Request: fold
Amino acid sequence: MNESPMTTLKRYLLSRRLIHPMAWWVWALGIAGTISLSSNLYVLAMALVALCFVVAQRRGASPWARAFPIYFLICGWIVVYRLVMHVLVGAKIGEMELFHIPPLTLPEWVAGINVFGTVYAEGLLMSATQGLVLGTMIVAVGAANSLADPKKLIKALPGALGDLGTAIVIGISIAPQMAESAYRIHRARTLRGDDTRGVRGFARILMPVFQDTLDRSLALASSLDARGYGRRADTPLIEQRITSVFGALGIIGATIGIFVVLDGRAPMFIAVPVLLVGAGFLVISLVIASRRKTSTTYDQLPWAGAEWLTSLCGLVPLAMALLEYRLNPASMVTTWMPLHLPTQVPLLVILGMVVAALPGFFTPRLPRATFRARRRKAQKEAVYE
Reply:
């Protein structure tokens, strides 16, 4: 018997399963691309709200899910570093003077670099905005790393990208592993009665955290090697050469196509076909090279409607940002000269950021085991605090 549309929708909304990790990365990279096109504070604020909401609704209890606050610390550090560098060697522009530091006289061979001097409010706010753009992009990457299981991401990659994907996944999982190690070591020290805080307490856990992270990374590498990752099947020489040729043509075509597309003076009827042909060569190269993979993959995650919805919700704000950039480029940036509050609101991009938050509502919820593990960890932390 065919189900009614309402029954199908209800069954979809009440379903519980993990989303394909590649969908989360497409969603996060789409938001990061949107942020790279704008320095408007309203867009940055909406992006942070959308990222935090989806992560809060759909992250699990794994170590990489717990590492999301670390990326906010990195974002704050980038903003502070950008402000310090502006005071130190930045271009001192503006009209509203904040404070004055006597400048240093430098040799003639470093002419053009101003160390210290008068700091103006406009230049300081401009530097903070630039740092916030980069920091928000890092938070977007951290959201993908918190939502997507790195081990399942390795399984989802094509066989031709097995080695590169394994290295990348191990690299991006270092921060979550360090966060988990720091939490466990701090808790163990507290249970032993060592409640030293400040710089001295941080110095005591620094070396154990590095040691534990290194041990876990070596254990992960050993487990990957035992499961056959990185091993290649014997393939004919002609097939290897065909793969190399198609890969080189694909990289060249894609690079030229992207360059011509970004160049506004070039006609689109030339740029788009070149880009598509280059992408096609890359796909053919990946398909042929994937035949060399010898390891088998079990328990593959499906790519269904939830994955298409998640990916689309990340690409919609990027498309809206490109359209807004064409129609009204002034609304995509925040100008602080003269000093004033941002007045222009890119409504299309704001609407796109609202769409980016929809995966927090309309994607399948976490499996019951994952949800219960997350709740148990939260209860333990509450009792511990």
